[in-house]
Specification:
homodimer; alpha/beta; Rossmann fold; 2 domains; seven-stranded mixed sheet; oxidoreductase (chains A, B); ADH-like_C (chains A, B); MDR_fam (chains A, B)
Chain lengths: ~350, ~350
């Protein structure tokens, strides 16, 4: 057990892409749990693209991280002290710990895990990202056997879940990923029917031609988590009555108006192709999480659903790992092991 | 009966806003119905914003009008000759006649109307526009008592239907219209709780402030049929889980990429507010049309649903009436009486 409390704070709001100077490593006295609270020592921390949005001072679905505040995020660890019923000391537990070595949380905001659960799986394939893919695909993607699905960031924890679930339901699945190696992983590890390296294409038109080759029957479901050039490439290829679950737009985090145009073109596509575009924030859907665990947990345990984790070592490595992830530097689910 | 066949043809594709020179009045020999066909003498012709889209050579949900081809559109008239079973000569009938004095249609593409039906009502309040409002509101708007709805082009045949139906279901309804007179009509004839003259506002920000004043609880349903500045004003006011049935974007017909930016901003709004944006082309939904007539027909007959028609006189007046309509020159449903 570490006796030092350390955390990564937001030092300032990023201008465009975050840089290391936007974060600071702080230390301080060990926090004390009050009545009904627990103290967790964090062993694994999740890094996710949505955290970029929380760094901006924009009205959004959640409060921005305050300057000087601890970066938000889910962690897993051991309960060091408990003043909450139903949360025993020594238990493996998860909650919104933030980027910190320890966290005090209310007992009711903590989920106690079965011993033997791989701690990091709770942050990825069986956590928020995997659940996002499962829930968004079934509710807004509405896949049908024989259709074609395109997913960007396809080796990431959301995209790889979406692709594997869709393929199991009889869809043709097309991965878009950055680099040859990720494309190979998309095909070999996650079973995508085709994988396209967006870095090999200079512009949206060239990327579109490659996707069109891989999707001879057009696209019925576009799992949208990047925005930008990929969206521009995909929209004209959408089939009538296509669906676009919109769960992120990482290419546009920090974008200023005028960076990209094409709203009229996108709106026209939604209209003329009768697309269904639905914003998805997984926090609205937690009541379905037990159902997800029940359905997908055994498939992960049986090896029917594959997953990849990238692990950075040490809390102090979190900012660089996060910055790199936003640029596509990770292959799978980005974890920090403390 | 007129013995001359006349039609309005597309002389050339418009560059931006259509001008009179984009159309030509042609005459020719009276068309002859073949086996299974009928000849209709058109008495009333519908002008609708979607026709602007058909003038462009763009891939869309329907074929563009060919250069030299007759402008497309729905008409009502009398059956002069019939070689189709179930369509008696002399009957009042409607179909896609195009902008023409007469049309030959297959019998199965013609709908015979009850005698006594006001011919023009079939083109507006009880035709495609009214049906669009009814179907789009129930399927994609999903209105709930106590919510707030905003509709642009609110005195038009779609917007006025949407507003009246929503108000009857207990929503607060806010009209956006061009000019004081239309705002007065929106309130007095169609019962909107508030009406905002978009012409009185220099920019989207000023318009937004006026809408925000009228919608203190935010906007749950935005009936989208204009795009452009109104969309820009409305998006930030949308409530979480808001719905945007998208049935037109008249401000953007003919827009070239780069005219307007804001796709990143719009996409971010869809994501963070978990909006549901659904393209609506009414041709997909005709199987619900009898249900619409059954529900709404009696309400129109009883005066519970009001409607307004603007009537231009003579086929040769159609291009000018259409050009004016696209600029908001009409108040209600634009008809041409031949």
């Amino acid at each position: 057990m570490s006796s030092t409390y350390r955390r990564i704070a937001l030092a300032r709001r990023p201008s465009g892409d975050p840089v290391p100077e936007d974060f600071s490593l702080e230390s301080g006295p060990m926090p004390e749990p009050g009545e009904g609270e627990v103290l967790i020592e964090v062993t694994h921390l999740s890094l996710d693209p949505y955290m970029r949005g929380r760094m901006d001072d924009a009205k959004s679905y959640a409060e921005p991280v305050a300057i000087g505040g601890t970066m938000t995020g889910q962690g897993v660890g051991r309960v060091l002290r408990s003043r909450a019923e139903d949360v025993p000391e020594g238990a493996l537990a998860t909650g919104i710990t933030g980027w910190a070595s320890h966290a005090v949380l209310r007992g009711k905001d903590v989920r106690v895990l079965d011993e033997g659960t791989p701690p990091s799986s709770v942050l990825g394939v069986l956590g928020m990202p995997g659940f996002t893919g499962w829930q968004g695909l079934r509710e807004y993607g509405r896949p049908k056997r024989g259709e074609t699905l395109v997913v960007a960031a396809a080796t990431g924890p959301v995209g790889s879940m979406v692709g594997q679930l869709a393929r199991a339901q009889g869809l043709r699945t097309i991965a878009i990923a950055g680099g040859e190696e990720k494309c190979r992983i998309a095909r070999e590890t996650f079973g995508f029917d085709a994988a396209i390296d967006h870095r090999a294409h200079e512009d949206a038109g060239s990327l579109r031609a490659a996707i069109a080759d891989a999707a001879p029957d057009g696209i019925d479901v576009y799992w949208e988590n990047v925005g930008g050039r990929v969206l521009e490439a995909v929209l004209p290829l959408m089939n009538t009555h296509g669906r676009i679950p919109l769960c992120g737009a990482v290419a546009w985090y920090g974008a200023t108006p005028g960076d990209t145009d094409h709203l009229p073109r996108a709106w026209r596509a939604i209209l003329t192709k009768r697309l269904s575009v639905n914003g998805l924030i997984i926090f609205d859907h937690w009541h379905h999480y037990p159902e997800f665990l029940k359905e997908v947990g055994p498939k992960v345990a049986a090896g029917e659903i594959a997953y990849i984790e990238d692990v950075a070592e040490g809390l102090e490595a979190a900012p660089e790992a996060f910055i790199s992830m936003l640029k596509g530097g990770n292959t799978g689910k980005q974890i920090v092991a403390l």
